[in-house]
C-alpha cells in the first residue's frame, strides 16, 4: 500500500511517469535487498530491522574506524560498550560498484 501511495504522489495515477516511478522504486528495492544480503553475509548484527533504504548495524569501534577509511556511513549511536551503531543508506544513485566496494570493505574489516 505504501509504495502505491508513493507512486501516485510522485507521478499521478496514469501515464509514462508512473511507469518510470515504478521502475525507480523497484531499482531502489533491489539495491536495498542487495545491501541487506551483503550485511548478513558479512556477519553484521542488525540494530533494528528496517524496511527502508537505511540499514542500521552494530560494529565494534575498531571495525567502525577501519570501515570509515573505506566507506561513507553515518554514526547513529555509540552504545558505550565498545560498540557503535552505524547507518548505511542506498539511494537512486547507488551503483553495483558501490555495493561491491562495501562488500570488499566489510570482508577486510570483519
Could you explain how this protein is built, in words?
With 110 residues, the chain is an alpha+beta fold. It is built from four helices and four strands, in the order H-H-E-E-H-E-E-H. The chain is elongated and about 50 Å long.
Total of DSSP H or I helical runs spanning 4+ residues:
4
Major sheet strand order? 1-2-4-3
Uncertain stretches of 5 or more adjacent residues: 1-9
Which structural class do you get from the secondary structure elements?
alpha+beta
Task: State the major sheet.
Answer: 4 strands, antiparallel
Share of helical residues: 40-55%
Question: What value does the average pLDDT take?
Answer: 86
The number of strands is 4
Amino acid at each position: 500500500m505504501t509504495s502505491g501511495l508513493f507512486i501516485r504522489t510522485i507521478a499521478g495515477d496514469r501515464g509514462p511517469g508512473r511507469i518510470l516511478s515504478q521502475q525507480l522504486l523497484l531499482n531502489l528495492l533491489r539495491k536495498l535487498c542487495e545491501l541487506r544480503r551483503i550485511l548478513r553475509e558479512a556477519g553484521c548484527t542488525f540494530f533494528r530491522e528496517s524496511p527502508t533504504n537505511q540499514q542500521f548495524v552494530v560494529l565494534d569501534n575498531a571495525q567502525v574506524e577501519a570501515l570509515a577509511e573505506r566507506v561513507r556511513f553515518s554514526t547513529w549511536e555509540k552504545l558505550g560498550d565498545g560498540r557503535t551503531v552505524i547507518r548505511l543508506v542506498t539511494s537512486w544513485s547507488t551503483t553495483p560498484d558501490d555495493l561491491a566496494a562495501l562488500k570488499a570493505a566489510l570482508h577486510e574489516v570483519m
